[in-house]
Amino acid sequence: MMSRYKLIVAAIVLALAQIGFLGWMIAGRAALLRSGQEVLLKVEPVDPRDLLRGDYVRLGYDISRLPAERIANLPEGETTSAEGPIVVRLKKDADGFWRAVSAWLGSAALTPAAADEVDLRGEISGGWSLAPGSEIGVEYGIERFYVPEGEGLAIERDMRMRSFGIRVAVGKDGSGQIKALMDGDTMLFEEPLY
């Protein structure tokens, strides 16, 4: 009888721990969407559809390809492949889109960002050359935006004809979350907080 009681208590504790962890993840995302520095990134479409979650627009950004020369702490003469964390400093351009002005290998910027700049953390996947004149590919975790079923292909087609953007909330730690999909100045879809 006593072991049955212990088993029930252990199951309840495990369930509460799982619920607490999921709640912590959701609250963190909502806090970032609510209070993160908002930036607008110009998008480049790739392909839409996920069998489990429905239509999405796969997004690429001009900040997804960085010239190796833009990396401030690149070891002199280094031409091997790069991979791992990177911090990309963004600044708002005259057209309203934020663009990369510098970058650092590692998980922290070497200098503090100015008031009109934002640091966005990304990840370099292996195989990119650091040789002069080359570019590296960076992923920020904001490369997919889910849309209502049946709308992914139409949005992607429209992206090829006119300028679209993504509003991104960037936290103090450099993490980014998509807030909204923009067609010019028109908000097409907004991410709910919860």
Keywords for this entry:
alpha+beta, globular, 22% helix, 11 strands, 194 residues, 6-stranded antiparallel beta sheet
The poorly predicted ranges are none
What does the average pLDDT come to? 84
How large is the share of residues in beta strands? 35-45%
Oligomeric state of this protein = single chain
Termini gap:
42 Å
Instruction: Specify the number of helices.
Output: 2
> Would you count the extended β strands for me?
11
Biggest β-sheet strands, sense, barrel: 6 strands, antiparallel
Strand order of the largest sheet: 8-2-1-9-10-11
Task: State the secondary-structure class.
Answer: alpha+beta
Amount of helix:
10-25%
Compressed to H and E, one letter per element, the order equals HEEEEEEEEHEEE
> Overall 3D geometry?
globular
Rg calc: 20 Å
Description of the molecule:
By secondary structure, this protein is an alpha+beta fold. 22% of the residues lie in helices and 41% in strands. It contains 2 helices and 11 strands. The strands form 2 sheets. A 6-stranded antiparallel β-sheet has the order 8-2-1-9-10-11. A 5-stranded antiparallel β-sheet has the order 3-7-6-4-5, with no helix packed on it. A hairpin with a 5-residue loop joins strand 4 and strand 5. It is globular. It starts with a helix and ends with a strand. The relative contact order is 0.21.
